[in-house]
Input
Amino acid sequence: MSSQLAALIIIAPLLAAVGVNVAGWINKRLCFPTALAALLVSLSAAVLLMRQVMAADTRIYRMAGWDPPWGIAFYVDALNGGILILIALVAVINLMATRQDAAGFFEKRLGPFYALYLLFVTGLMGIVITGDLFNLYVLLEIASLTGYALIGMGGARSRISSLHYVFMGTIGASLYLLGVGYLYMATGSLNMMDLAALLPGLENMFLVKVSFLLCLVGLFIKMAFFPLHAWLPNAYSHAASPSASLIAPLTTKVMLYVVVRLVITVYRPDFAFSQLPIADLIVWLAVAAIIAGCILAYKQTRLKRMLAYIIVIEVGYMVGGFWLANAAGVTGALLHLFNDAVMTLCVFLAAGAIFYRYQSDSLLHLQGLFQKMPATMTAFVVAALSIIGVPPTCGFFSKWYLLSGGMAAGHYGFVAALILSSLVNVLLFFRVIEIAYFEPEDHGSDFEGSGHVQAAVIREAPADTVLPLLATAGIVIAMGFFVHTLVGWFIEPAIAPFFPGGL
Amino acid sequence: MEDSQLLHLLELVIAKYNYWGIAILLMIGLYAMIAKSNLVKKIIGMNIFQTAIILFFVSIATKWEATIPIIKHAHGGHAHSIHAADYMNPLPHVLMLTAIVVSVATLGVALALAVGIYQRYETLEEDEILGQLKQEQIQAEESGGK
Output
């Protein structure tokens, strides 16, 4: 059994996606437990697998017994082992926290919703675990297609936003596929480990360079790296809360993981960072992403939309930090991948809880929220402090790594953008906190006629939303305290071979 | 001198005509997705874009004077020596079977969304939809602000 864990991670949610639909026909109430059971199986398999990896280095799983490079192999090392746990954890927490919201919002479509939810998680897990570039494309499209559908199931405007996302996402995935095709022409292989052995010596081939650039641009579209971010804010802010808080923390991070995997395993860092003259350009684009994200986020009057632009900023941090190409920068980018997934989950869950009670997320309607929803707002503040980068929380440490990486690389533009964006984040979140804490509550006429729920009846979100939310906030703080364990377990083993000097 | 340059150009265009065809198809697809305002035309453009890449993969599988990769008389096949150079590369074809499924699924999702959009806005022209959205927003702000 323990040798089949890698397959179990993928198979459990995949089969349950079918099962949950059947369960939906029998009784709507069976959907949630089925989905939860499958994700818990996945989570525990991911944890057990990580223990195996820590005991005995990289695990290779041969799908259906075919040896690589002919068959598809799953490779699990410290880095993707960690990300598998992260994905499963985010999916489980979000599933529990949004149970009531989903049941109320989707009603008859609950079965399809949970089926898409599970397929989306399957796709992301598959992207992270697979060792085959074409298999990665297929799983990328599984995750994307279910993502489009999840977003399109939202409110009135979600369909047009989702369709724009379909166009951009398809261009991105197609460019990635074209890049894989070029790489196949140059080497005749699709297996990552095989490619790593074949590519040295071919770096100067035009085909190989073009293949890398095509894959990169495709993935940049998928992760909404400025200036290819235009699809993200609409898609994420118009989606229903239960979908948004699943997709927002995970999609961009997993796409960043794919870039990291291509660079460190397939093409090798010295090719990606120094042989191609793009490192400087990408860091400056990241600076532009951070600054543009700040300006656009500040202009928003709706909470979810503001948070969506903050994701654009965070993507800038991670891509820029990674292309600083030194140990601290890469560690910072990867640590931020873990941290940002949890922080984003926390703020989006809080925003979802607020929306669930208010039926609006306009910043103008948040007065007196601290008295009515104290637990939700506490979690929101913790995550906000972490996104700003205040010390006990995890966001501080990844920012610290990124800053020291920027200093070490002598890239002061990136350092300046990081500090500036932290200040803007202070403005953004304290504006929300100020309205919610200090501004007097509106009574009476304001809410009448506008279709919003009466301000007086707002109360704390249901307990099964608040408990996972507080747990997430707890994780945000705990990840700050155990930051060295995180780096030591998941990140250092993966990048140590390339930066022998250490931190 | 000029002759050799001309020959080089000819080689670039004629000998690699498949890539030129694919590049043109990619551009047609991209143009439709960016410039057309009708959503269904955009979706068709997207499908052309994906199909171009499928053709690209299929075209890189061919070899000069090679036949389809089916080994005749399969039972006794192992008795003959088989030269890989005599057969086209089957792997890109197999990959593209999957890619076709993916592109059909994408098309399905896109069309389903377009149907949903049509039911709500009763038009598929993007500029008209955006106009309606803007009006909705103005109305919402007016009712929210009074």
